[in-house]
Specification:
Length: 344
């Protein structure tokens, strides 16, 4: 916790000394400071999680969860503002930005800073599924059969959203489902059942349901599913967090190097900026390296943009995860008030 405090104190001292920006050159120097600060703060989430585990005997679980939820929402808002400024500055300096530019086509025309105006749920699910399966294949070996992804519903649904946030949430859900299905069917020596993904679009929301037949959530884990201060398996989570020194909470945490064939096949619309612009430089982890905070952090990201994440477990059968996404522009972000920040 002291490490996190020192990082924020250093950032405050650095930014408060920045003089008023009066020119493009001043802004460029400011962007260098912001970019460097963002990189330094990639250690915040794993350090916070380790601090929570170490302090779980000193605080009530509900107080710890309130502290983590408030701090993470505040952190998301700061990073969104900082990264949006960096992305808009990058666009301003791009060669196609100037009237006399030889190249008039803007490859990121569908982006406004970090916001992807034409985010397609089907494409995001397919790309996250491909990367999660690549990681599972690397962990379990090429001989292990992996579940197929079956998509149905409103497959053409598009909406404005910050792509990296959606990739992180869906990546976590698919990683959990793939792992559960693979490990369950390995015990019975049968082919893995497919993971069903249903996409439903309404005027205000997009709802994604991910259903698997991985046996459901164990009863000893279910009570702590959305808690950061998990009592069970806390020592295992602490040891795993020591292996993940940096984390920004995006799909890059789950990535594996793609083969040339994979790289060519993934050149689609969503690949224009696959987690490369919003939150960068994540350390990936194998499926068995559980950190104990993927689901609660995914819910924080979903609720920040006025969405929701719920999970229904059928013990002995499987899990249905429901992700409700509010189309940006229809809802205000769910910010933490100053009073709630001061309370923690």
């Amino acid at each position: 916790m002291s490490h996190v405090y020192e990082l924020y104190y250093k950032a405050f001292e650095t930014l408060r000394r920045v003089r008023e920006i009066r020119s493009v050159e001043d802004n460029d120097r400011y962007c260098n400071i912001v970019s460097r600060t963002l990189q330094e703060h990639l250690t915040v989430i794993p350090r916070l999680a380790m601090g929570v585990i170490e302090c779980q005997s000193l605080m009530k679980p509900e107080e710890t969860d309130k502290f983590m939820n408030t701090l993470l929402r505040s952190r998301i808002s700061r990073r969104v503002i900082a990264e949006q400024h960096l992305a808009l500055t990058e666009t301003f300096h791009s060669p196609w930005h100037f009237p006399d530019a030889k190249q008039q086509h803007d490859p990121n025309a569908d982006f406004v800073g970090e916001v992807f105006l034409r985010c397609n749920a089907k494409e995001v699910v397919e790309e996250c599924g491909q990367r999660a399966k690549s990681l599972a294949e690397a962990a379990y070996g090429p001989q292990r059969k992996l579940p197929e992804l079956h998509l149905e519903g409103h497959l053409e649904a598009t909406f404005p959203y910050i792509l990296s946030h959606l990739q992180y949430i869906i990546g976590e859900l698919l990683r959990n489902s793939i792992q559960a299905v693979v490990e369950r069917h390995a015990q019975t020596n049968t082919d893995p059942s497919p993971i069903e993904v249903l996409i439903c679009e309404t005027p205000q929301h997009v709802i994604i349901r991910i259903s698997d037949q991985g046996g459901g959530v164990p009863k000893d884990i279910l009570p702590d599913l959305w808690s950061f201060s998990k009592v069970c398996r806390s020592q295992t989570h602490l040891e795993n967090l020591l292996q993940v020194p940096r984390m920004a909470a995006t799909m890059q945490e789950l990535k594996t190097p793609l083969t040339p064939g994979d790289a060519q096949s993934s050149e689609g619309a969503s690949d224009k900026r696959f987690v490369d612009g919003s939150l960068s430089s994540l350390t990936y982890r194998p499926p068995n390296l559980k950190l104990g905070m993927g689901l609660p952090m995914s819910r924080v990201y979903a609720e920040y943009w006025a969405g929701n994440l719920e999970l229904h477990s059928l013990d002995g059968y499987g899990v249905d995860a429901f992700l409700q996404i509010s189309k940006l522009g229809n809802k205000n972000e769910q910010l933490s008030t100053r009073a709630s920040v001061d309370a923690v």
